UniProtKB/TrEMBL annotation:
Gene Ontology molecular-function annotations: odorant binding
Name by which UniProt lists this protein: Uncharacterized protein
Superkingdom of this protein's organism: Eukaryota
Species: Ignelater luminosus (Cucubano)
CDD domains given in the database record: PBP_GOBP (cd23992)
Signal peptide coordinates: 1-17
Length: 137
């Protein structure tokens, strides 16, 4: 019986890892659609952005923060008036559980920083960490 419980637990952990990997892959693919333009616009380092998305190793430099501003603009989360369109965040959270998506949205969408780059960075980091945490529960 103990062996069965251990194997079940191990399989559950493995399935969570695959789900996390899929979520990260989805984020990597989404970022890739705007990455060349946003690297050019922000001056961010490609390796730094890759580490943020793939590994959750967050940078705090202004260029990286402005990369996320460009990213949100390209996804229409920031409109032409440089305002956050909070409801547009929902479609990019990347989870199927609507209750979890709503929880992440309510926590992350209202975040604001010292400027639009800082605000974008805070929202992106919040969505990323909350979504990963939700998948690993």
């Amino acid at each position: 019986m103990i062996t069965f419980v251990f194997i079940t637990f191990a399989l559950l952990q493995l399935s969570n890892q695959q789900t996390v990997e899929q979520l990260i892959d989805d984020y990597v693919n989404l970022v890739a659609t705007v990455k060349p333009d946003c690297l050019k616009e922000s001056g961010a380092d490609s390796d730094v952005i890759d580490a943020e998305v793939r590994l959750g190793k967050f940078a705090w430099d202004q260029n990286s923060k402005c990369f996320w501003k460009c990213y949100l603009k390209k996804l229409n989360i920031i409109n032409d008036n440089d305002e956050i369109v909070e409801k547009n965040i929902i479609q990019y959270i990347g989870l199927s559980d609507k209750e979890v998506v709503d929880k992440i949205y309510k926590k992350c969408a209202p975040l604001r920083g010292s400027d639009l780059c800082d605000t974008s960075d805070k929202i992106c980091k919040c969505v990323y960490t909350e979504a990963i945490a939700a998948v690993t529960k």
